[in-house]
């Protein structure tokens, strides 16, 4: 699948998909005695800097050389560590607030082009008629082929009111069409909620933002005000790339008994070894408690959590916690496997590095990194197969990814063969299929969740697909959830 979906994000989002951020105010962490600097290598770096300044074909600014050197050093560590220059830092801060300037599309890279995963409702792209499945072949007449997904996204960003021209190729049409789109500030609500059938509620979290807990409280309270006898609730985390860690802790706490362990982290620094409980200090240390007004029934209502290969980081924390406590049945397909902590270390007032500092573990101590969360009941995306989910790249497919504790080395020949076969099957199924509307009447996985509530047969994945992932964890009778052993950690 190396040429299919390489990464996903919202145009203008400015945040790597599947990142759960822990914001730090210090420039860097001090670790007892500092390691001695490698003077020979630093001299070599200075020599290279001097050679470029004196011999390169055109003059290069000092600031650019140093910024690029920092960026390359950090990016070589793993796919989620990154240097944030002034623009990237500003965009990241905007993204966690649920707003950005762009055209309003969720995109993925496929075979060198930018594929529309979904237009955001009422966004400029949505109003321009751009649809899921369309391919962007040119941006302002510049070919997309050969650009990274991040480079393509940057070209679609800009100031509010400015225009960008997209060349769109659509399956079934002979010629591409050119559409000018005016950029706007896009505000994304992270929580949707509705009754999908009498007695059954659907709550969707698209990303964990600063306002997610407030939105969850408001919308679930409204559901219960109109439907006080809800018999089952589906928490939909499909295609949720993650977001802020406090949001994941708070959402888990909304459905679990008070003060349960939600997630733990382990890293090199003592400060990276932490236990996070369902207490206000971990999900809302300032202001009013957003969970104080939640309906009490949320603690006991029967639940199904829907996940897929696009569920990452913060959404995996929530799914793993609810699964460990047997609070919900996790249904769908194996999640992305982004179980590493990115800590923001400011370098100046407007630059920073986002550095991987620890791994996440579920309450039972199961590692999330590279493995992800395996559903209790594997259900494919459609009745015919796993659709777009079969084309997704997971954490283990990313170059330089942080190895998982339970990760098994892949056999290159078999991996390539399986990827090619999966891609061909998925493309054949998708050829004439309408884009999936999550929470809609044709949502196959949601229908299976409702069948589970009603005691009806659930159409699980085929035996071949089910064998592709390890079985969901089983809890032995009488076993208890115990916090993992962490040095210096206190409840």
UniProtKB/TrEMBL annotation:
PROSITE patterns: PDZ. Pfam families: CtpB_N-like (PF22694), PDZ_6 (PF17820), Peptidase_S41 (PF03572). Keywords: Hydrolase, Protease, Serine protease. Residues 482-491 have a biased composition (Basic and acidic residues). Coiled coil: none annotated. Residues 89-157 form the PDZ domain. SUPFAM superfamilies: ClpP/crotonase, PDZ domain-like. Residues 400-423, 460-491 are annotated as: Disordered. The keyword Protease applies. CDD domains: cpPDZ_CPP-like, Peptidase_S41_CPP. NCBIfam families: prc. Belongs to the peptidase S41A family. PANTHER family: CARBOXY-TERMINAL PROCESSING PROTEASE CTPA, TAIL-SPECIFIC PROTEASE. This is S41 family peptidase. The lineage of its organism: Bacteria, Pseudomonadati, Pseudomonadota, Betaproteobacteria, Burkholderiales.
């Amino acid at each position: 699948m190396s040429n299919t979906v390489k990464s996903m994000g919202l145009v203008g989002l400015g945040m790597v998909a599947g990142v759960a951020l822990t914001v730090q105010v210090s420039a860097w962490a001090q670790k007892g005695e500092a390691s001695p600097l490698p003077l020979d290598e630093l001299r070599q770096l200075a020599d290279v800097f001097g050679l470029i300044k004196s011999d390169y074909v055109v003059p290069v600014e000092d600031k650019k050389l140093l910024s690029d050197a920092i960026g390359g050093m950090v990016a070589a560590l793993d796919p989620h560590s990154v240097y944030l220059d002034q623009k990237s830092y500003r965009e990241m801060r905007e993204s966690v607030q649920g707003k950005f300037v762009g055209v309003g599309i969720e995109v993925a890279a496929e075979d060198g082009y930018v594929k529309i995963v979904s237009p955001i409702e009422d966004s400029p792209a949505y109003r321009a008629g751009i649809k899921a499945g369309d391919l962007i072949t040119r941006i302002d007449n510049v070919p997309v082929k050969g650009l990274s997904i991040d480079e393509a996204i940057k070209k679609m960003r800009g100031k509010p009111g400015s225009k960008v021209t997209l060349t769109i190729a659509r399956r079934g049409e002979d010629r591409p069409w050119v559409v000018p789109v005016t950029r706007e500030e896009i505000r994304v609500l992270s929580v949707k909620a509705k009754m999908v059938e009498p007695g059954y509620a659907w709550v969707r979290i698209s990303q964990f933002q600063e306002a997610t807990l407030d939105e969850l409280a408001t919308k679930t309270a409204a559901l219960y005000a109109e439907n006080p006898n809800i018999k089952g609730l589906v928490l939909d985390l499909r295609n949720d790339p993650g977001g802020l860690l406090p949001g994941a802790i708070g959402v888990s706490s909304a459905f679990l008994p008070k003060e349960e362990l939600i997630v733990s982290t382990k890293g090199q620094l003592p400060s990276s070894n932490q236990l996070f409980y369902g207490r206000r200090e971990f999900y809302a240390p300032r202001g009013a408690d957003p969970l104080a007004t939640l309906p009490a029934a949320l603690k006991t209502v029967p639940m199904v959590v829907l996940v897929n290969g696009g569920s990452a980081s913060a959404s995996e924390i929530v799914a793993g916690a609810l699964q460990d406590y047997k609070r919900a049945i996790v249904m769908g397909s194996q999640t992305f496997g982004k179980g590493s902590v990115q800590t923001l270390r400011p370098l100046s007032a407007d630059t920073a590095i986002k550095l991987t500092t620890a791994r996440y573990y579920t309450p039972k101590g199961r590692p999330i990194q590279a493995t992800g969360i395996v559903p209790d009941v594997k259900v494919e995306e459609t009745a015919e197969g796993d659709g777009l989910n079969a084309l997704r790249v997971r954490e283990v497919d990313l170059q330089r990814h942080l190895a998982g504790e339970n990760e098994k080395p892949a056999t290159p020949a078999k991996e390539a063969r399986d990827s090619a076969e999966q891609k061909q099957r998925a493309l054949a199924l998708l050829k004439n299929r309408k884009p999936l509307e999550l929470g809609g009447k044709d949502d196959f996985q949601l229908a299976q969740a409702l069948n589970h509530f009603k005691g009806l047969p659930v159409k699980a994945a085929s035996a071949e697909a089910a064998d592709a992932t390890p079985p969901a964890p089983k809890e032995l009778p009488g076993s208890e959830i115990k916090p993992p052993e962490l040095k210096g950690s206190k409840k």
